[in-house]
TrEMBL record, chains A, B:
EC number, as in UniProt: 2.7.2.4
SUPFAM superfamilies named in the record: ACT-like (SSF55021), Carbamate kinase-like (SSF53633)
Molecular function, one GO term: aspartate kinase activity
Function: Catalyzes the phosphorylation of the beta-carboxyl group of aspartic acid with ATP to yield 4-phospho-L-aspartate, which is involved in the branched biosynthetic pathway leading to the biosynthesis of amino acids lysine, threonine, isoleucine and methionine.
Family: Belongs to the aspartokinase family.
Record's keyword terms, sorted: Amino-acid biosynthesis, ATP-binding, Diaminopimelate biosynthesis, Kinase, Lysine biosynthesis, Nucleotide-binding, Transferase
Protein name: Aspartokinase
Listed InterPro entries: AceGlu_kinase-like_sf (IPR036393), ACT-like_dom_sf (IPR045865), ACT_Aspartokinase (IPR054352), ACT_dom (IPR002912), AKii-LysC-BS (IPR041740), Asp/Glu/Uridylate_kinase (IPR001048), Asp_kin_monofn (IPR005260), Asp_kinase (IPR001341)
Length: 422, 422
């Protein structure tokens, strides 16, 4: 009976009833003989409400102070959760990120964990107590200021603590039953995945699956921490994310799932002189503007003109900044025009097994073709194929591909308990 | 131009507008050439709302976790205030009680400050920044746990920081214009006091004046920190609380003011055997129950019976516990009965000058008599006379005494800006 780290998201602790329900689940785990460390997010909409308040006093709040403000959210939920556990007759102590030894760099609002020194957590466990830790927050190594980890930060806190404490498993509780072969809100016959490897999970997350963020999966892969994604509203086994044991006991699926993402926009740089260094100048300009790009596609240039087109996708929220950055270098690079399109969607097929199954790409494109979906961009990795289509075609495309690869369940089993999957 | 510590209460920072107004006032002080340290309470009703939440999950929340919960309140207000100041073009940094070096004992919910080590505040000031510090909270020396200072804690934080930083003045901003000769809600002609010594202010606070709590005044007296109590809603000079300079430049009023208090109840122990040690046994029983008693009165015993009555007052909230504690020892001590009365009020006349003016007591009782107010208990100190009356007589008694000592203003000058004076 080893140490279990459990992480509960904001929708699981949205009100007093939710907190009491989570407390009972934690106590059950403790009574089963485990040491228990719990990572908790802020209650329900607390973080959004605090951001609203900040914007009322300052349109662009200072990063250090925004972190100080937002970390009040987990302080509230973790203290209430510790009280609720004590009410059930068990000892619990809450710890801030700083008290739990979550040491980060100094980049406010999106700090990275650089060390975890959980001495106080270890002491609490040795005393037989349950430790409740604030997710999403840490303290900077250099300035001793409070930091936050950005989107998905609480999941990363949980995995990082699990690694530092040598936990048996990191359980991520959410409002769905696990990771599905496609978004259950789009594909009624999506199936819950029982087991999935880190690589496949990482590609699914990067391709738009919302259940786990890539950052947290990366951390778990690096330290080989098994993650169990499961629902806090049911007692069901969820999805195990872990590497196949030596010897390969874990069955290797050809395809793990279909992910989609409609949060990106497409930028096309038209008429780029086809000579060495031009692409580099384009992407240097975009990178200097701090924009994260996703897919990049360049075709062969037309022989008649010596010009080529380069397309890339980036989050819609950063699209206009990308255009502005490129307009500044248009004259120097000498491309003809810029096109911006935010009515696109991306569909990705992920599976480590596709390495050894050459027919996968053909089946994927046939399915899209039969569904009448036009493909605008294509990008592949060793275990993923992604295409960009019109945004309005995304749902039909996901369903067609899901069916074509035999992923459909016999029943409509997917259950969404509410919330947005975060 | 020295260092100024300013403290703003919850009603001054109740919403975004309040925070912006306070930010402008802080910037004005900075621009006048002062170093500025600001201590801030939680916004408006935040603390009460958090206590409500706690009670929803646990009727008697654990002290450590309640402190963790409540300290989220100042975290929110101080971060927002720092943002609002930056919006006005000045540099500000917020600090938790722990970061500000407020070291306390380990008594959760009513910790006492045992040291202040404001190294980070000093560094922020040296960089030319404005430091915003969370009131009401600290960190325990032994366990490094978060603590809160209990009622009036933010005022105490401000005075303690002012002492540790050798401030020129500690300004306490509230929703009234200063300390008045009586509660302006009871006496329309109450006058604002321009200057008052620490001893008088301490007696007024102990006697029920709500503007400053005794604990904060005691701290200021010990370290000789001048306090300036003033309104955050007006630009007026308020009340200076400080000792007369050597040589006595400060005019010594005979009477500083009239305080009243209707928050206490009276307990009478009837028929106590009049022999040594009986009173001690009674008050030991009450003290062991953790009850703070205020006035104690014992009259001479009736010669015929050898029995006496002992009365004391204590907060109404603790009255029933006092009765329960005494009932447990009734048989051992052998008193006849207990009487409990929560329909009482206390009126106190305070003034260091009364030492040298023997007519004060007579004038006080004459004023009460002429107002038809019956006196039930009397208690005096060197610079205070207090009486207990019926609760319904308190307002008339305060007005009569205020007039009798010539404290009435020529005009109805007292202005209350809203809130409860805290």
């Amino acid at each position: 009976m080893g140490l279990v780290v459990q992480k509960y998201g904001g929708s699981s602790v949205a009100d007093a009833e939710g907190i009491k329900r989570v407390a009972r689940r934690i106590v059950d785990t403790k009574q089963a003989g485990h040491e228990v460390v719990v990572v908790v997010s802020a209650m329900g909409d607390t973080t959004d409400e605090l951001i609203d308040l900040a914007e009322q006093v300052s349109p662009y709040p200072a990063g250090r102070e925004l972190d100080m403000l937002l970390t009040a959210g987990e302080r509230i939920s973790m203290a209430l959760l510790a009280m609720a556990i004590k009410e059930l007759g068990h000892q619990a102590q809450s710890f801030t990120g700083s008290q739990a030894g979550v040491i980060t760099d100094s980049v406010h609002n999106k700090a990275r964990i650089i060390d975890v020194t959980p001495g106080r957590i270890r002491t609490a466990l040795d005393l037989g107590n349950i430790a409740i830790v604030a997710g999403f927050q840490g303290v900077s190594q250099d300035t001793k200021d409070i930091t936050t980890l950005g989107r998905g930060g609480s999941d990363t806190t949980a995995v990082a603590l699990a690694a530092a404490l040598d936990a048996e498993v990191c359980e991520i509780y959410t409002d769905v039953d696990g990771v599905f072969t496609a978004d259950p809100r789009v594909v009624k016959k999506a199936r819950k995945i029982d087991q999935i490897g880190f690589d496949d999970m990482l590609e699914l997350a990067a391709a738009g699956s919302k259940v786990l963020l890539a950052r947290c999966v990366e951390y778990a892969r690096r330290y080989n921490i098994p993650i169990h994604v499961r629902s806090s509203f049911s007692g069901l086994t969820g999805t195990w994310v872990r590497n196949a044991p030596e010897g390969g006991e874990m069955e290797q699926a050809i395809i793990s799932g279909v992910a989609h993402d409609t949060s990106e926009a497409k930028v096309t740089v038209v008429g780029v002189p086809d000579k060495p260094g031009e692409a580099a100048r384009i992407f240097r300009a975009v990178a200097d503007a701090g924009i994260n790009i996703d897919m990049v596609v360049q075709n062969v240039s037309a022989a008649s003109t010596g010009l080529t087109d380069i397309s890339f996708t980036a989050p819609k929220t950063e699209g206009h900044r990308a255009i502005a950055a490129l307009e500044q270098v248009q004259e120097g690079i000498g491309f003809e025009a810029l096109r911006y399109d935010d009515q696109i969607g991306k569909i990705s097929l992920v599976g480590a097994g596709m390495r050894s199954h050459p027919g996968v790409t053909a089946t994927f494109f046939e399915a899209l073709s039969q569904a009448g979906v036009n493909i605008e961009l294509i990008s592949t990795s060793e275990i993923r194929i992604s295409v960009v289509t019109r945004a309005e075609d995304v749902n039909a495309a996901v369903q067609a591909v899901h069916t074509a690869f035999g992923l459909d369940s016999d029943t409509d089993e997917a259950v969404v308990y509410g919330g947005t999957g975060r």
